[in-house]
């Protein structure tokens, strides 16, 4: 990122707080990842959060403490990464074959039955089913649009392709049961989150939260990767 375009990120403010010389190397704006590796625990929350302006979640994966904060967060089973929420938020990562929008359609039917016109059966009639079907189709169409957009974004002419194998997480093989498919999908979501590859996830909430630190970050990380 162009630091000159980031008025809230100033090397001088950060260096002054840490009582470091203004020509300190590495400068926060020039090499923010190396700077964070050295001083992550020395900066207050309102200052450390500014590094989101000059780093990406993927870049911050290089910092052991931040990887382990993400790991601890995923181990708390947050709702934002749960199967039901993640499947709708990142539909291109879910390869299930069920009809999309069924849950949304069911909720719409329940609303019509219980709330619309007092919920009297005679007045509601087929309205609940109609609204449910419409909501199910809307959700299914939303997923189709996202998948088409993703497919177009991912297309790269062969002669221009630039492979970056280190950025890829191993693809999950097609599962033998719905339960296994769900478990593998949940694992894929957790892995992509930890590696900074889950687009749209709230990384700032996790990356700068010192309460997620563990006593021995490196040991915790090694245990998780060894479990793989």
TrEMBL record:
Residues 149-181 are annotated as: Disordered. Residues 155-179 have a biased composition (Acidic residues). Residues 124-228 form the CCD97-like C-terminal domain. InterPro entries: CCD97-like_C. It comes from the Eukaryota. Pfam families: CCD97-like_C (PF09747). This is CCD97-like C-terminal domain-containing protein. The lineage of its organism: Eukaryota, Fungi, Dikarya, Basidiomycota, Agaricomycotina.
